[in-house]
Amino acid sequence: MTQRQSRPRSPASWHPAAPEREGLWIFTRVRDFVDDIANTSPARLALSAFGAVCLVFTFLLSLPVSSATGTATPVHQALFTAVSAVCVTGLTVVSTAVHWSFFGQLVILIGIFVGGLGTLTLASLLALMVSKKLGVRGKLIAQEAMNNAGRLGEVGTLLRIVIVTSVVIEGVLALALIPRFMTLGEPFWQSVWHGAFYAISSFNNAGFTPHSDGIVPYETDLWILIPLMLGVFLGSLGFPVVMVLQQNGLNWKKWNLHTKLTIQVSFILLAAGTVLWALMEWDNARTIAHMDLGDKITHSLFASVMTRSGGFNLVEQNHMESTTMLLTDALMFAGGGSASTAGGIKVTTIAVMFLAIAAEARGDSDVKVYGRTIPQGTMRVAISVIVAGATLVSVSAFLLLQISGASLDRVLFETISAFATVGLSTNLSAELPPSGVYVLTVLMFAGRVGTVTLAAGLALRQRSQLYHYPEERPIIG
C-alpha cells in the first residue's frame, strides 16, 4: 500500500483559526465578568443587576411614547418613577394615570413585577442566564435569599418556584378583581388591565394605581379592598414562608423558625396597628369620624395592612393626627418579612432584637425560642440592619429638611416611606425640586437593596480566627 501524502496548503488558502466568532466576544466578556462577580462578590452582583434594571426602565420612561402628551419626560422624573417601580415603592412625582401613556404604565407594571422578585433573586437569575451556572458562593447567596429553603443543588428549582408562585398568586388576584371592575361599568379590556395592574401592584407591595384618584372611590367596596389586602399581606410574608406553607399547610410543628417568627410578628403588628390606628383616628373629622362602625373597622384594618409596605391609602395622609403619623412611621420602618416584596428592616429583625432583650433581662446567655437557640451571628446582623436603616433615614431626612424647608413630620414620613419602600406620601415628593427627588431616589434604591445585601453579605463573612484577645467588658447604659 502506498501511503497517501497530504499536499501543503497554499498561502492563499490558509487562514488562522479564530478563537471566537466575530461578534460573540462581547457576550463572552460579559459572561466571564458576571461569572467572576457571582462567585467572588454576589452582593456586588445584586447591586449591579438592580442598578442596571433601574437604568433600563429610566430610559424607557424617558421616551416620548411613554408620556400621555407624547413629549419626553425629564430625567429626574423618569429616574424617580423607574426606581420607585423597580424598588416596589409606589412614591410618585407625577400622576401615574395622567402623565403616563398606556405604554408608560405597562413599563411601570413590568418594572414592578421584575423588582418584586428581589435583588438576590435577580442576581441569581442573571448569573444563571449569562454564565449558565452558579458558583458555591453564588448558590449560598441565593440560598440565603430563600432562607435556606432547600439544598444547594436545588437553587435553580427554588428560583423557578419563586417566579411561578408570583404569577399564580397575581393571576388569582386579577381574576378576583376583573369581574368587579366590569360590574362597575368599565369595558372588558379596561377591566382586565385594571385587574392585572392592581394584582401585580398589591402582591409586590408597590402601591401604584392606574386611577387618577387611586382607590379612594372604592373605600367601602370590600370586593376590591379584600383582594388588595390579601395580596399585600401574602407578598409581605416572603417567598420562603409561602413555600413552607405550600409544603406543610397550617401544620405549626412542621414550620421552620423563620416561618413561625414571621407569621407571629406579622399578625401581632397587624392587630396592634389596626387597634391603635382606630383609636387615634376614631373621632378625626377629616378622616373616618363620619363613617359607620363597619367602615371605620375596614379603614383601620386596611391602613394597618398597607402601612407595613402596601402603599395604598383610603384617607389623605396629611389629614391624619400627628400621633397616627408617628404610628405609621414606626410600622413602615418595621416592614414585612425577609426575602419578600415588602421593605423596612423586616419583622424577623424585630423579633430577634426583642428576644435578645428578653434574654438579657432574664440573665440568659442564650437567646432561645420555640426550642431553638438563635446564633450570635444572627443578632449581629440584626443590629447592623437596624443601625444601617436608622442612619440612612437620619441622613436623608437631614438633607430633605435643608432642601425643602418642610416640617419635620412630613419630611420624616416621606423619608421612612421611601426607605421602607412603602409608597404612602404626604405629597412632599411631588413638591420637591430635582435635588430632593434625587435624594429620595437614592434612598429608595438603598432601602431596597442595601439592608438585604448587607444582611446576606454579613451572613457569609464568617472568618476563622486563630487567636482571641482577652475579654474586657465596657460599661453599657
Automatic annotation (TrEMBL):
Annotated compartments: Cell membrane
UniProt keywords, alphabetically: Cell membrane, Ion transport, Membrane, Transmembrane, Transmembrane helix, Transport
Transmembrane portions of the chain: 45-66, 78-100, 106-130, 158-178, 222-245, 257-280, 330-358, 379-403, 437-460
GO molecular function, one term: monoatomic cation transmembrane transporter activity
Membrane topology qualifier: Multi-pass membrane protein
GO cellular component: plasma membrane
Key word Membrane present: yes
Pfam families the record matches: TrkH
InterPro entries: Cat_transpt
GO biological process terms held by the UniProt record: metal ion transport
Top-level taxon in the UniProt lineage: Bacteria
Keyword Transmembrane: yes
PANTHER family: KTR SYSTEM POTASSIUM UPTAKE PROTEIN B, TRK SYSTEM POTASSIUM UPTAKE PROTEIN TRKG-RELATED
Protein name: TrkH family potassium uptake protein
Species annotation: Pseudarthrobacter psychrotolerans
